[in-house]
Amino acid sequence: MMTHPGHSLFILLGIPGLEDQHTWISLPFLLFYLVAVLGNSLLVFIIMTERSLHEPMYFFLCMLGVADLILSTTTVPKALAIFWFHAGEISLDGCVTQIFFIHATFIAESGILLAMAFDRYVAICDPLCYTTVLSRAVIIRVGLAVVLRSFSVILPDVFLVKRLPFCHSNMLPHTYCEHMAVAKFACADIRVNVWYGLSVLLSTVVVDALLILVSYIFILNAVFQLPSRGALQKALGTCGSHLGVISMFYLPGIFTIIAQRFEHHVPPYIHILLANVCMLAPPMLNPIIYGVKTRQIRECVVSTLSSQWKLC
Question: Where is the G-protein coupled receptors family 1 profile domain (predicted)?
């Protein structure tokens, strides 16, 4: 289907090469989405209502839960509509809106993970200053900084995409709108889009990952010097939860980049599936990892569910 320059409607095709399997593929998408929505909603509710969890680490976890809800809700419902009803039509404005929220939320999550790493660093390496360094006012400022950074660096993406004239096929082989996937269909020079997208990735997500790595080098060095075995196990348990969440966030992205590097040898559907894993895995697994690994959250969840069961 060819359209005139400046067309404003795209057709998302889902996962190319696996169209006849869309119904089956939709099942894990639906399951992951339900787990993500229910798990993160419960996590946010527990942290906001349980006063014993009103601590910096849990406030950051609450922010992460909200970001996960936004990220999964921005992508999965549209993917399910494609799989079930072949409803792939999306306007240019809708596409740009999806691009904005996906990328802004992804960068926000990276910033939140960095804040959580800093929280663990202060708690373990300088515990006497913990309440002073991470006061309620500081947490609010960190949250605002994360949101402002993600919005300010992604907002130009909106204008970079909106300025492009589109004269190639409007069939997008994807389940959601992604900046460069859309830009490739423009009949204009997209070098600005390419370089700006790369600079945003390097200056935010890559820098965050490096700072998290440095912080955990100091954290683990301090942890293994703890004299008490009980304190060592507690610190490793808390850090283990965070490292698990970090792995779920960064590893799918790394695999996606590797697949893109060898794109001529990797089927297109692998690219799309890996991209969807980046959107699906962290929101689903984050509440499970923290719910299982963090005793305080686990106890509050059990207490809340048991009280609700008695009321029923």
Answer: 39-290
pLDDT computed for residue 94 by the predictor: 94
Instruction: Convert the pLDDT of each residue in 47-58 to its tens digit.
Output: 999 988 999 999
Nearest to 277 by CA among 304, 250, 299: 250
Q: What residues have CB less than 8 Å from 73, skipping those under 6 apart?
A: 37
Q: For position 2, what pLDDT does the model report?
A: 40
The predicted pLDDT at position 116 comes to 92
Task: For the chain, list residues with pLDDT below 50.
Answer: 1-4
- What is the predicted pLDDT for the residue at 237? 72
Digit-coded pLDDT (tens) for 286-303: 888 877 777 888 888 888
310 burial level (CB within 10 Å; 0-12, 13-18, 19+): exposed
The three-state secondary structure class of 164 is coil
Strand runs (DSSP E) across the chain, as ranges? Answer: 9-12, 89-91, 171-172
Max Cα–Cα distance, the chain, nearest Å: 71
**Rounded distance, CA 84 to CA 86, Å?**
6
Beta carbons within 10 angstroms of residue 127's beta carbon? 10
Q: Report how far residue 77's alpha carbon sits from residue 33's, in angstroms, rounded to the nearest whole number.
A: 9
Q: The tokens of 234 are what?
A: 């507690």
| Inter-residue contact 112 to 123 (CB < 8 Å) | no
Q: How far apart are the first and last CA of the chain?
A: 55
CA 69 to chain centre: 9
Closest Cα to residue 114, out of 142, 85, 89, 74?
Answer: 142
Which residue do the tokens 């962290």 mark? 282
Whole-angstrom distance, CA of residue 159 vs CA of residue 183:
12
